[in-house]
Amino acid sequence: MALRPRLIDVSIAIYPGMCQWVGEEIVATDVLSQTPDDVANVTRLVLTSHTGTHVDPPRHFVHGGSTVDQIPLDRWIGPCWVSDLTQAEDEVTAADLEAAGIPDGISRLILKTSNSSLWENTPDTFNDRFVGLSLDGAQWVVEHGIQLVGIDYLSVGPFHTTGTETHLTLLENDVIIVEGLDLRDVQQDAYELLCMPLKLRNGDGAPARVALRGPIILAMDAAQ
After folding, report:
1. What CATH number was assigned to the domain covering residues 6-214?
2. What 3-state DSSP class applies to 171?
3. Where are the chain's structural domains?
4. Region of 116 on the Ramachandran plot (φ > 0 left; ψ -120 to 50 alpha; else beta)
5. What is the pLDDT of residues 53-99, one digit of tens each?
6. How many distinct helices (H) and strands (E) make up the chain?
7. The pTM is what?
8. Three-state SS at 181
9. Active site residues
């Protein structure tokens, strides 16, 4: 019997004191009931819609854009390509993407950068020098018909340069975003992306449990 492709959890855990976007350090838990004194364990969770591993729909930056609950699940689930861009410094540029050997027809692109090492070395500390996607890199994504892009830190856009512009270029062109991935155990290859955002009504974002199944054989119709 052939072995099934393995399932790799690429989500980061949510807990008080975790790495959060600067100025948003609000993750908290509050025990409402606890065994053995109570009949059940129930905890109240406080967080933002962009905590940990999460998704950005157009509404995050685009007034009147689509919200999380309006985006079909099959946009978040399906074949993807993980591109090893760990040699990129500061930003992943259009030139980096052009040289990366990304297969034609890919509709979901996951960027593995040196950021993934931050989840091991400084997991609870926000690092504003993370590697992001440059503005011309975002334009490359749009021009190549990619419909989803993921990255291994809390923002697809660089902190000190084009953070807003990168988001706008993607989201205004209906390229949805997955952020906060942990890709330490993932090699460059084709996988099945399994991303399940919380169904928040009118959500500008949502935490998600994300996994990669594979590697898989990339079909010619991967963009479908």
Report:
1. 3.50.30.50
2. helix
3. 6-214
4. alpha
5. 999 999 999 999 999 999 999 999 999 999 999 999 999 999 999 99
6. 4, 12
7. 0.95
8. coil
9. 60
